[in-house]
Amino acid sequence: MSALKVTGLIKHFGDVKAVDGLDLDVEKGEFFALLGPSASGKTTSFRTICGIEAPDSGSIFLDGQDMTNSPMRDRGVAMVFQTFALYPHLSIRENLEFPLLQMKLGKAEISKRVGETAELLKLSHTLDRKPGTASGGEQQRIAIGRALIRHPELLLLDEPLTNLDAKLRHDTRAEFKRIHRERGITIIYATPDELEALTLGDRIGVLKDGKMVQVGTPDELYEAPDNTYVAGMVGSPRINLIDATRKGTDANPEIAAPFGDYSGGSWMQALKDFPIGEQLIFGIRPHEIVPVENRADFQGPTFDAEVHMTEPLGDVVILDLIANQSRLKMVLPEEQATAYQVGMKMTCGFDVGSTQLFAKETGTVIR
Question: Which CATH class is domain 2-233?
Fold first, then answer.
């Protein structure tokens, strides 16, 4: 059964349509990542799901029950905001106790839950301190604890790592996975960071302008994006998207890119439906481009390029290439990249079967 099913959700703020017909289906016990940039509708969707905001239209079902117009207290949903939102005058223990007091639980149950939650989040040694004395990572765990302690059916995490440094973000991501594994709770995690979405989500939903544009596993979104928006959101470095044109014949179509003409991709059959001269977008992942020493030995198309810039990233290096005035990126292991310096000419190759093709006017994939 779905833990959450949202259909046709719409929410306006004046003339701004923050959520525009959102459909979302999250399975019980799933860790679902909601990926989208700022102003894509993540926070408004969360606030509407948990009952802070009332939808203009649409339906919200929790565990099969229609909760569209139900009050927050009846939904069994907890939300962790981007800001920690802790009570600075209360101790960490009192911050954890606060939602349980609102639920009017007995002292014994409150004490039990505080102890369990503190142990789960490694906060037992901090309970008598004030939040202001805690580190950023500890404050984030307190905020999570205040949500978990209610034993919610659904936990919404709204960009919870934004205020943490890189190491704390890495450590806290691991904490989220541990909590999910140990509690089996259904989690929806909203983030603008594709790395967070790819590493955390069992499935990922990609949001654009308040609409869900694609849902799939990390591999599905990376290997088979439905449009240029998803292709650009998923994958680091970003996919190379290059202007191209439909050419060839009706029976044997080709695409003309600035650095060569190509055929044989998975898009070949569908490309026959496009007229000659149609403007297209040709997509190649940076990891799919490789250096070629001998064209005769390479099984696939090749092109000439010049190294414009290098971006060392530790064990790998991103090479910025110029191929007949077209800019591309490729990724090489550090030991291999040292052979290529700025200004050098090189021959590159790729597997045309790994490329993507999109209609330029709509951005929709051709497959």
Answer: alpha beta
By C-alpha distance, which of 71, 65, 62, 52 is closest to 11?
A: 52
Closest residue by Cα to residue 121 from 101, 136, 137, 102: 137
* CATH domain 240-359 topology: OB fold (Dihydrolipoamide Acetyltransferase, E2P) (2.40.50)
Q: What is the DSSP string of 309-323?
A: EEEE-SSEEEEEEEE
Residues 6+ apart with CB under 8 A from 60: 4, 5, 6, 9, 48, 49, 66, 67, 68
Confidence bin at 120 (pLDDT 50/70/90): confident
Bridge partner list, 94: none
Domain with CATH 3.40.50.300 in the chain: 2-233
Q: What is the pLDDT of residue 1?
A: 64
Task: Give the three-state DSSP class for 162.
Answer: coil
Q: At what angle do helices 107-120 and 92-102 cross, to 10 degrees?
A: 130
Angle at 7 between CA 5 and CA 12, to 5 degrees: 120
Judge contact between 330 and 259, C-beta under 8 A. no
Q: Are 137 and 99 in contact (CB under 8 A)?
A: no
User: In the block, which residue shows the tokens 């800019």?
Assistant: 327
Give the integer Cα–Cα distance in Å for 321 and 29: 44
Please name which of 43, 48, 62 lies closest in space to residue 10, comparing C-alpha atoms. 48
Kindly write down the DSSP assignment for every residue of 222-287, as one continuous string.
HHS-SBHHHHHHSSSSPPEEEEEEEEE-SSSEEEEETTEEE--STTHHHHTTSPTT-EEEEEE-GG
Lookup: tokens for 360: 């330029």
Structure tokens at 301: 């198309």
Dump pLDDT digits (tens) for 141-189. 899 899 989 989 899 999 988 777 787 788 778 888 888 888 889 999 9
Looking at the chain, the domain(s) classified CATH 2.40.50.100 span: 240-359
Contact status, residue 258 vs residue 223, Cβ threshold 8 Å = no
Among 68-82, 197-211, 236-250, 333-347, which is the least confidently predicted range? 68-82
